Each structure stands twice: as structure tokens, then as C-alpha cells.
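User: Here's a chain of 136 residues. Predict its fold as C-alpha cells.
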Amino acid sequence: MVVDESGPIRVVCIEDEADMIDLVKLILNKKGMEVHGASGGHAGLELVSRLRPDLVLLDLMMPDMDGWEVYQQMKAHPETREIPVIIITAKAQSIDKVLGLHIAKVDDYITKPFGPGQLADSVERVLGQRQTRHPS
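Assistant: Prediction complete.
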């Protein structure tokens, strides 16, 4: 994973389960990434707007605002439109994955439960694609 001179890669994890945020932090901190957690869609949008992270990990099923609404609001704003998004969800039905990857154009889609390697590989692949598309 390439880290530029401006510091570590920043990731925002928008998830209503604190244990899941802790797990993501544990996995990605080991890769040298800085992970910020937001419990819920409203808090997540505020954090993304303030931090402008390199990547967002987004749960779909949250009580205050579902992940698709968060995603649509991010993509509607020029400041957050280009931030890649990986959906992390318990919604494992193939139609949900097709909607996410091919209709909504999320960068990746991971279903819970997932292994540490699966998350790390997805994050590195998405960030690698972003660096290829948007070289510094």
C-alpha cells in the first residue's frame, strides 16, 4: 500500500455496530491506515464532509439513514463525489450485490461476515484502482 507524504490513508467506516467499527479499525490499522468510525448515516456524512477521507466503508442497514441514502448524498456533492465507497453489509442476496456494483456503481461490495484478508484485499484493490485513475 502506497502512503503519500501527506500522511496515512484515511478511511471512514459508517456503521451502526460499534463492534464492527472496532474490527475494521483493528484490520486496517495493521495496514498503516487511519480509520475513523461513525455510528450511523447522519454522523457518517458529517465526518466524510469534514475529513474528506481516501475511502468510505459503508453499511447499508442503519436505523437513522440507510446506506444507499448516504451513498446518494455523497455522490450528489462535488466535494465527496470522487471518494470511493465499499459497501459492507449483511445483505448477501445477489440482487443487492448487482444493484450495488452495476447500478449504483459502488467500488466494491463485501458481505458480513468477512475475513480480515477479504477486507484488506478489497481496500487495497479499490485504492490501487483510484491511484491508477487519479495519479498524484
